[in-house]
Design a protein that fits this description.
Elements lengths: L23 H6 L22 H5 L6 E6 L5 H10 L6 H18 L7 E4 L4 H7 L3 H13 L2 E2 L4 E3 L11 H8 L3 E3 L7 E9 L3 H12 L4 E9 L2
Parallel strand pairs: 1-7, 2-3, 2-6, 6-7
Antiparallel strand pairs: 4-5
Helix pairs in contact: 4-6
This protein binds zinc ion (2 copies).
Protein name: DNA utilization protein GntX
Family: Belongs to the ComF/GntX family.
């Protein structure tokens, strides 16, 4: 008997490798991102060099790696992971990110991270959900890449309003001083992982903290980047 978990999450066909979560057909059908700036991840003519926006105002990180735009079916899987208590989707999404990173690493130079950090959830939200989706993504990635995962390195030191309905400027103000870094990360090659990057204000707020610590390099990894 096939259990539900040995079927593809998208087309429900039986899987040869249950741990992949998605069949090779659906994997090929996933939307590919358009050519993007390696730094901010927004559509750009050249995928090798930072775009004009990044040259004018350099983001506080070196690279942004993502699987696809925030569109179906990935957006649906992320919503299930976050809001419908489907933590079992995390390894599948983490694997898509790993495949993307390996692909980019072949094309362009990318540091192998020494350490993965995750954006901490607000206590109440974490308690209600029962888990932090980013932690579930980070743990298998750290295992596959042979690097460290430090779930406690970043801490939220004050509650913030939900970001969804705020403008970019309001988001920035909302997050100012909301996080603290509890570890010494000087000289380390670090990845900051979040499930979705929208305006990048959360990533930027934490990245500034990490840069102030003197990290050697910083990559932002996410499953989806809204384009
Ligand atoms: Zn499938
Ligand atoms: Zn850019």
């Amino acid at each position: 008997m096939l259990t539900i978990r040995s079927r593809c999450w998208l087309c429900r066909q039986p899987l040869r490798l249950a741990q992949h979560g998605i069949c090779s057909y659906c994997l090929r059908q996933l939307p590919m991102p358009p050519p993007c700036c390696p730094c901010c991840g927004l559509p750009a003519g050249d995928t090798r060099y930072p775009c004009g926006r990044c040259l004018q105002k350099t983001p506080p990180w070196q690279r942004l790696v993502f699987v696809a735009d925030y569109v179906s079916p990935l957006s649906r899987l992320i919503k299930q992971l976050k809001f419908q208590r489907r933590p079992e989707l995390a390894p599948l999404l983490a694997r898509l990110l790993l495949l993307r990173w390996l692909h980019l690493r072949r094309e362009q130079y990318l540091n192998r991270p020494e350490m993965i950090l995750t954006v901490p959830l607000q206590k109440m939200r974490r308690w209600r959900r029962g888990y932090n989706q980013s932690e579930l993504l980070a743990a298998p990635l750290a295992r596959w890449l042979g690097c460290e995962y430090r779930p406690q390195a970043l801490r939220r030191i004050r509650a913030t309003a939900a970001q969804q309905r705020l403008t970019a400027r309001q988001r920035k103000r909302n997050l100012r001083g909301a996080f603290r870094c509890e570890d010494n990360l000087a000289g380390r090659h670090v990845v900051l992982l979040d499930d979705v990057v929208t305006t990048g204000s959360t990533a930027a707020e934490i990245a500034a903290l990490l840069q102030a610590q003197g990290v050697a390099s910083l990559q932002i990894w996410c499953i989806c980047r809204t384009l």
